[in-house]
Amino acid sequence: xxxxxxRLEALAExxxxxxxxxxxxxxxxxxxxxTILVGFGGSLVAGTYSIGNIASFVVFGLTIGCIYALVALGxxxxxxxxxxxxxxxxxxxxxxxxxGLFAADALSGAGVLEAAPLLSLPLVVAxxxxxxxxxxxxxxxIAYRPFLHVRSLAPLICAIGMSFVLQYAARGLFGxxxxxxxxxxxxxxxxxxxxxxIPMLQVVAFVxxxxxxxxxxxxxxxxxxxxxxxxxxxxxDAAALVxxxxxxxxxxTFAIGGAMAGVAGVLYALVFKQITVFLxxxxxxxxxxxxxxxxxxxxxxxxxxxxxxxxxxxxxxxLLLEGFALPAPYQFKDVIGYAMLVMVLIFxxxxxxxxxxxxxxx
Amino acid sequence: MSKVLEVSDLTVAYGAxxxxxxxxxxxxxxxxxxxxxxxxxxxxxxxxxxxxxxDIRGGRIRLGTTDITHLPPQDRVALGLSQVPExxxxxxxxxxxxxxxxxxxxxxxxxxxxxxLEWVLELFPRLRERGRQLAGxxxxxxxxxxxxxxxxxxxxDVLVLDExxxxxxxxIVDLVLDALRAINANGVTVxxxxxxAYRALEIADRAFVLESGEIVMTGTGxxxxxxxxxxxxxxxxxx
Lengths: 362, 239
Description:
The complex is a heterodimer of chains A (362) and B (239).
Chain A: H1 4-17, H2 20-46, H3 51-82, H4 89-109, H5 112-115, H6 117-144, H7 154-174, E1 179-180, E2 190-193, E3 196-199, H8 200-222, H9 224-234, H10 236-241, H11 246-272, E4 274-275, H12 279-294, H13 299-321, H14 333-347
Antiparallel strand pairs in A: 1-4, 2-3
Chain B: E1 5-14, E2 17-27, E3 32-37, H1 43-51, E4 58-63, E5 66-67, H2 73-79, E6 81-84, H3 96-103, H4 110-123, H5 140-152, E7 158-162, H6 170-185, E8 189-194, H7 197-203, E9 206-211, E10 214-220, H8 221-226, H9 228-233
């Protein structure tokens, strides 16, 4: 540690240079730190939650975090290549989730789902992927391709339009009530590890999401298509000049993002057992938040953002708010999630793993 | 075998402004041809039209026996036309090795690609120890070497370069132009756009002078070097 007089000088220097905005920001930091300390201390003192409870919150947080990460990947991949947020992405995920539902219903009707859930699950996930990828391709064709060589906000507006089209079309076709996913046989059970009761489906969803994420990162890092995607993201014209078909790379990006969203929609349904046509907005905005949190345009960032958001939501209410003796701390999970997002945007605008945009070009 | 590049009546417009007007020229197989011209004369526009990055208003572009006028950029690369763009335009977050390898994106024969990579590394030995470094962290001269290497990795018949010596120290300029001559001697037709007219004319077989979007003069490199108008306008001394 620096000697005392140096530290005082640094403090004086900060006071000379700081404006009232810096003061406000500092106050926010201190306020958050105080809230966390008081809440955390209070939670410990109250002792409502055992280590077992906490551990099951962690498991749940990781599971939902992986699902957020899958959704976030679609946002971040499209942003990386087009510098544009695909606002229809949440609804692509919702439609993919319904695709999975219909596949699961069909398998359930045939009795396969109950008898062989481990065989059926990949089929249901695949249905979600195919539907998600197909819808994403439609969104690309209608909302993005016509504007490929135009610098305008039109694709953004069109994507918002597509979001409504998908949501209300789904509402008209499937109805707006909750739709329950059929049971997956033995996967519906729970199991115990060290006195901890864990729902099997959470683990299944976690593993499936992890496999998908690892597969996607491998594709982007190791394959010809992945290299082309990175090249287009870095410099579209230069990519065309080395012989990359930029249009096809964009199509592939939407398809992969849509497939990942479809997987996320199905896994979400596995964990929560039901879906509605409004799922696209709520889960879509979470995925978007996760992408921003991790640093938009950055693939590992989407993963980190999703997990951090999932863990914060799952653990935050119990660990931080219990001490305030609130009547329903769990209802604050979104407050915690979005407060964290706003804080990251204030103190680290480029996201957890993101780079400052100014450094983008060499 | 190298291919002829033939441009006839090329016209490119930005809105109502015609930046390139009825430009016609031919680059014979194996030649090293340079386009000389002031800032804004339309040199980069011509190159981008050749490579398909810019829509054209009129005219035809032929590479060998193929009419490439309406082909997308990636098909032109596959047919043997590569560009080293202005400002190098590397992929800064990829390694040097990845930048070079992606130059061969349109090619499938792994052995031939590996041989060409070796050739590029012999041409620019300095890149050999930089393979795992991110391209964005290289010096300007090294980045130019990677940009040229990347274009060569496509094994082009015709290589077009836009201002490859811009912003480089004089001894690096020598290195870049020597490498360019070596590439040309290896059978690749070269079309070079340069602001450094003197250096470009020195190494060129033939040259065109582009002024306000039109070709106003053609000749061998030596002829233009001695031409009083050129000396005045582009070489910076009186005849």
